[in-house]
Design brief:
Blueprint: H1 2-54, E1 61-63, H2 64-67, E2 74-78, H3 98-106, E3 110-117, E4 120-128, E5 133-134, E6 147-151, E7 161-164
Parallel strand pairs: 5-7
Antiparallel strand pairs: 1-6, 2-3, 3-4, 6-7
């Protein structure tokens, strides 16, 4: 009886040796798939907004609610945004690398749009101000008030500037 139970114990130990690495690998795969989806979504969202703005004609009205594919109640726009802590990087070219992002921040070119829905962060968009610029906006905007005029001639680097319609 003792030998049989000892033999079964060895079988269980071997199973753990084989199963533990599979569990670790599964967790890592899940983590990287989730990270890739988040990074790719942010890059796609930024490219979508940039594409719409850059392909708009001079003096076109742009309603931010129509170019954002998610629900939000308020947006706050921060020009020349400087985060308090170092950002997490999206690896493998899924989005800006940490070096590229830090360069954008240090050059004062990071514009961040923070979207809130029901009092919670709904989403955000990071833009380079040499691709899309916003005039200075101090207050949070609702979907009904986040309407901008596309001005393609107001900045030296050629980036379209979005001017808030008053």
């Amino acid at each position: 009886d003792f030998c049989l139970s000892r033999g079964l114990g060895d079988v269980y130990k071997r199973q753990v040796v084989y199963i533990a690495p599979l569990v670790v690998i599964s967790i890592l795969i899940y983590y990287f798939i989730d990270l890739k989806q988040r990074c790719m979504y942010q890059a796609d969202l930024r490219n979508h907004v940039q594409h719409i703005v850059q392909n708009s004609q001079q003096d076109t009205l742009l309603r931010l609610a129509e170019v954002t594919p998610f629900v939000w109640e308020k947006v706050k726009i921060f020009n020349n945004f400087k985060p308090e802590r170092k950002s997490k990087s999206c690896p493998f070219g899924w989005d800006w690398s940490s070096v590229e992002r830090e360069s954008i921040i240090s050059s004062g070119q990071l514009t961040v749009l923070i979207f809130v829905n029901k009092g919670k962060l709904s989403n955000y968009i990071e833009l380079k101000s040499d691709h899309v610029r916003f005039n200075a906006i101090d207050e949070s905007l609702s979907p009904d008030s986040a309407i901008f005029v596309v001005n393609k001639s107001s900045h030296a680097n050629g980036a379209p500037t979005l001017l808030l319609v008053q």
